[in-house]
Write a sequence for this structure.
């Protein structure tokens, strides 16, 4: 049984004071419960402060990116080992905003994953097609390219331990458009089959595949209720406790039944 994971990607949002109060409310709500995993991914400058707030709870701390090189002369970059140093146990890599706005290639993402895995971080690998790619029936081709581009040559034992995949259709991110539960489920099945064929059935069965793209309190239950949707990567709705908490609660309710 794959434990559900609800992760909040704060992106480049919130200030320190509002990040602190959000984390405080979340730590209180989650406490030490672990039936559902809850994670927040604040901007880099806030990681230490948020870590301190979360340290007495089971809420996990993730980062939104890291660089693929070891610490050294790379002005403005952040090493994977620096993330573990400030209390992160996960990192989001390959987010569509980094692919499409910051120009990250599959090759860069692959190198970042290798480095993050070596540092002991869980990797939340984001994949997803653009609107025009879906309209042209290219979704599976795009996903296959992103998955093999990112995962080719990675250590299978580390992937088994640390890989989480997030399917985030680009047309659903921040748009209010959501993949239907059927659309999400069918892509998640495709990704799981791909993992099974490219690696092995055990890995495919264990890796959690999250859905991301306009997940809100009113659609979370149906999306998270799909057999192959193992959680959510939430952007906008993760910035307010009143919106994020019901998404976490939906995952809890589904886990309890
Ligand atoms: P929204 O939930 O704002 O659509 O963002 C999704 C996302 O990109 C999470 O990584």
């Amino acid at each position: 049984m794959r434990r559900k994971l609800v992760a909040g990607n704060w992106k480049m949002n919130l200030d320190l004071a509002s990040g602190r109060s959000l984390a405080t409310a979340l730590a209180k709500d989650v406490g030490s419960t672990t039936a559902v995993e809850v994670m927040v991914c604040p901007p880099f400058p806030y990681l230490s402060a948020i870590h301190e707030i979360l340290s007495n709870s089971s809420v996990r701390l993730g980062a939104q990116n890291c660089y693929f090189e070891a610490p050294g002369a790379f002005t403005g970059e952040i090493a994977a080992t620096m993330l573990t140093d400030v209390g992160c146990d996960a990192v989001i890599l390959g987010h569509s905003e980094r692919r499409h706005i910051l120009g990250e290639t599959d090759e860069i993402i692959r190198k970042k994953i290798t480095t993050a895995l070596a540092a002991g971080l869980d990797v939340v690998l984001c994949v997803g097609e653009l609107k025009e790619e879906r309209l042209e029936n290219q979704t599976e081709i795009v996903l296959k390219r992103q998955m093999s581009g990112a995962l080719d040559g990675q250590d299978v034992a580390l992937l088994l331990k640390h890989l989480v995949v997030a399917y985030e259709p680009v047309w659903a991110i921040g748009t209010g458009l959501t993949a239907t539960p059927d659309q999400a489920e069918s892509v998640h099945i495709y990704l799981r089959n791909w993992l099974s064929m490219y690696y092995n059935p055990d890995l495919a069965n264990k890796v959690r595949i999250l859905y991301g793209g306009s997940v809100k309190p009113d659609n979370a239950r149906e999306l998270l209720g799909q057999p192959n949707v193992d959680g959510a990567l939430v952007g906008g709705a993760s910035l307010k406790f009143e919106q994020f908490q019901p998404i976490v609660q939906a995952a809890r309710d589904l886990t309890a039944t």
The chain is about 45% helix and 15% strand. Residues 5-256 form a domain with the TIM Barrel fold (CATH 3.20.20.70). The two ends are 13 Å apart (CA to CA). The chain has a mean pLDDT of 97.
